[in-house]
Amino acid sequence: MPEFALTTPYGTLIALVAMAGVTYLCRASGVIFMNRIAIGPRLARALRALPGSIVIATILPIAAQAGSPAFLGIAAAIGAMIATRMEVAAIAAGLVAIALARALGL
Amino acid sequence: MCGPTPIPDAQAGWQTRSSGACSGACDQASDGEMLRRKEEYPFRKPNCQTVMSRPPRPAFTLAGARLGARLALPLLPGAMVFASAFGAAAAQKGLELWQTMAFSATVFAGASQMVALEVWQDPWTLSGLLVVTVLVATVNARMILMGAAIQPYMVGASRGQVAAVTFVLADANWLIGMRYHGEGGRDIGVVFGAGLMLWCGWVAATLPGHLAGAVVPDPERFGLDLVMPIFFAAMLVPMWKGARPAIPWAVAGSAALIAQALIPGYAFIIVGALAGAIAGAVIDDA
What we know:
The complex is a heterodimer. By secondary structure, chain A is mostly helical. Chain A has helices at residues 11-32, 41-66, 68-84, 87-103.
C-alpha cells in the first residue's frame, strides 16, 4: 500500500472519525436494519463466542511477545479477579506482579 | 425476582407492570451481576410484541432518563476504572489530551478503544488506518446484535430518538434496558439515561487517566505498557461459563498465535477473533 502518511498531518483525526463512524454504524444498524433479519442459532452462537475470542486473541500474542512477566501479570490479575471480583484489585495485582518480575530480571 | 440484589426503590414503579410473559434479559443477569457479566447476552429477540399490546410510539421522557441514570449508578465505578486505564494507556501511546478525550467521547466502547491503541501509529499509513478501522468494527460487531435485540422496543420512535439512544448504547445500559422493557417498561428514555450516565463517567474518568499516564516516568518498570492485556485477562473471569463455551476461545488463541508468527502487524486479533466466532458457530455449546 502507498505510504502517504507524511503528506497529511490529519492521520489521527482520520483514524478517530473512522473509528467513531464504524462504531456508530454497529450501534445503529442493529436497530435500523436488523428488524427484518432473523438471527439464527448459528449466528447467535458465533456472536456469543466473539467477545471471549477477541480477548484471548488479543492478549495471548501480546503476552507471548512480552515474555514471562506478562504471563505472570495475567495470572495474578485472573487470580485476583476470581478472589475479589473487583477490576481495580485485578489490575493492581497484575501490575505489581509485572513490576516485581521485571525488577527480578525475569 | 431476578437475583439476590434487587435495585432499591428504583424498580418499584415498573416492576408492578411486569407481564411475566417476557423474561428477556432478566433471567440472564441479576442487577448486581450486570457489570460482572456484561459480556453475556441472551442474543435473541424477545417475543414480547406478540403478547403485549403497545402504543404506536414508545415514550421518551425525562423521568425515564432519570430512572435509567439511577439504574446505571452501580455500574459506574467499574466503567470509570476501565476509562482511566484507557486514558493512561493512550497517554503512553503518545496521544494528545484532545485526541484521547475525543476518542472516548465519540467511540465510547472500551474494549475496542484499548485494542485500537495496540495498533496505533502516528504518522498513519493507509494500511494502518484500514487495520484500526476493521479492528474496531470487529470488536464492536456484537453491538449489531444488541441493537437488534432491543429494536422491538423502539418501533415507532422518531429518528432523533433512535439516534440519541443508539449513540450511547453500551453493554451495561443495554442490559438495563432489556430488563426494564422485558418487564413491560415502555420508556426508551431509560436506556438513554443509563447510557448518558455511563458516557459522562466514561469521558470524565478518561481525563485523570491520561494526565496520570503522561507523567509516569519509565512506565514499563511498573508494567503500565501491559495494562490492556491485564484488564482483558481480568474480564475473562466473569465471561467464563464453563469449559465447553470456552472451546472457541482456545481456537481463537491458537489461530492468533499462528497468525502472529505468519503475518506482520496486528492482524492476529482479527484472525483469532473470526476463528473463535466460526468455532462457536460450528460447535453446539448448548
